[in-house]
């Protein structure tokens, strides 16, 4: 269930705005006051009286600690309230009474939030660098939340069988139960080199990411634990900010007073001026004094469509930004949404225009970027790579390939160029002008691994574009795909031009040689669909001066078995710590006699010093995980070794890390992950 209901928006939490309030016993009034204008969708409210201390109970008998749950029906609790855990709690305090009070209060507040079916609670920031006891209690709570879920589900499924009419009720309850309470840990985003930010009781610096990482490790990276970044008036370096993009950041709490704005990064230099112009001219918003825009802070959002958030700082109220980082969001790039989080007392001092600024910007800026994006369902989802040589792909897989229209456009362009290279325009037109019947030269093109035929279509479209004539041989070893190919040829009336070949390209006895050999066997790693093996087998029927498309490619980028396997994954929630590097290169055709398709490469990745500490969980475009994540200290390089090994029935990779520390060699002899020949 989303935090609030907002008409006209697609359903993703990224659209919702909240306002932070002081404790108020009268929750209906609090909601009415803060949500009635439509500016906010939910409140971030303390659930317990801040004066409550368990140790004082016996003396003063301070009960009840909160208002009755019945003041609201379950639905508003769940969709309009985020719980704010008491900020005074300090579970790592030297003071035993405070520590014990903190633990009891934390557990009571979470249990109360859970009872109210609240979706999320914001936990206060750890008070110092040492947070082991805090993390231990949070981990216990998270474990308890999970355990609470199972019996409910069993009880609920049971009557569905016998009482189908209860279905709608049951679905509603199931939704509540399956949306487990999430915990957002507030972390102050501080610069590692910021002299002002010191551990309260020692001289050591508190690195925000290290603090979060330590907490998260202690909680075993629990999936219900998120980070809410509290951005202060000075930002860490862009590189160290990048580390957060690999973390489950659900919110950023920002001290600021007016507005935020988005700019494509190439407008960055003009940003402060543009911000004023756009505010006034396009969005019809208040134009703020230039001294505010001068304070703008660019936050780089490292994504495909790099966008920047500009944050004019002035500590009056808090703005909370939620990542649009949900796998099913329809937005095609990573971005933030605006959630205003401010104390309602402070709120009174802020002209309403400022709130409207946030409202209008957040509604207008999102809409142009909405797009149906086929990759969204695959984000951050680890998939075992396909083995199209050994296995026969399913129809659905071909359909997924075919949705990548950009790929086929690029192929069509390459084929057009190859056609022009083989028969330049002048030559073709000279042939046409001859007085006697002398046919245009007909080029031979072979699509090896044709699948359902999208590359055959791209080839024929290229002939229309260039006016050249072609004879096409699609070669496909998957008999099911050949059936589809057959129908396509018939349906399109290509029988005179296209001759289907149903066999493995490595053993096909071609009736003639090809001018152009087209293939798409790269996979995510360049060679994991075994293009070197297949194309070496196919180059027999490419003319000596023929053209291969693609012609060269590089390896760009369980227990034991799962950590010795490469995965296909559309990485989205990721911090890219260093630029990608070339690993292996293959060239086609390759007539050298002493060639080997085994490879070895050692690579060093330099990570910018101002990145701070970081954790490496994997490498390359196809994801190779190290068995144990590699902890990087500022300034130390990552050294990895990579081997491509070939046997008589399989091809596999082995890899290891040798710096900053040495790992074992992964996947030795292809014991866990290999590609069958
Ligand atoms: C990645 S798919 C590409 C399919 C199609 N060209 C496309 O773009 O949709 C690779 C195709 O090559 C076929 N293939 C793989 N190895 C082959 C071989 N040795 N001989 C013939 N076909 C092969 C697979 O069956 C599969 O259909």
TrEMBL record:
Classification via PROSITE patterns: SAM_MT_PRMT (PS51678)
Spell out the coiled coil positions from the record. none
- Transmembrane as a keyword of this entry, yes or no, is yes
Domain PRMT5 oligomerisation residues, every copy: 619-675
Question: Can you list the GO cellular component terms from the UniProt entry?
Answer: cytosol; nucleus
Question: What protein is this chain from?
Answer: Protein arginine N-methyltransferase
Provide the transmembrane region boundaries.
156-181, 307-326
Q: Which InterPro entries match?
A: Arg_MeTrfase, Arg_MeTrfase_PRMT5, PRMT5, PRMT5_C, PRMT5_TIM
**Keywords for the protein's UniProt record, in alphabetical order:** Membrane, Methyltransferase, S-adenosyl-L-methionine, Transferase, Transmembrane, Transmembrane helix
Domain PRMT5 TIM barrel: from-to ranges: 40-156, 178-258
Task: Fetch the Pfam families from UniProt.
Answer: PRMT5, PRMT5_C, PRMT5_TIM
Ranges for domain PRMT5 arginine-N-methyltransferase: 372-549
Q: Which GO terms describe its biological process?
A: methylation; regulation of DNA-templated transcription
Q: Which family would the database say this protein is a member of?
A: Belongs to the class I-like SAM-binding methyltransferase superfamily.
Q: Name one GO molecular function term.
A: protein-arginine N-methyltransferase activity
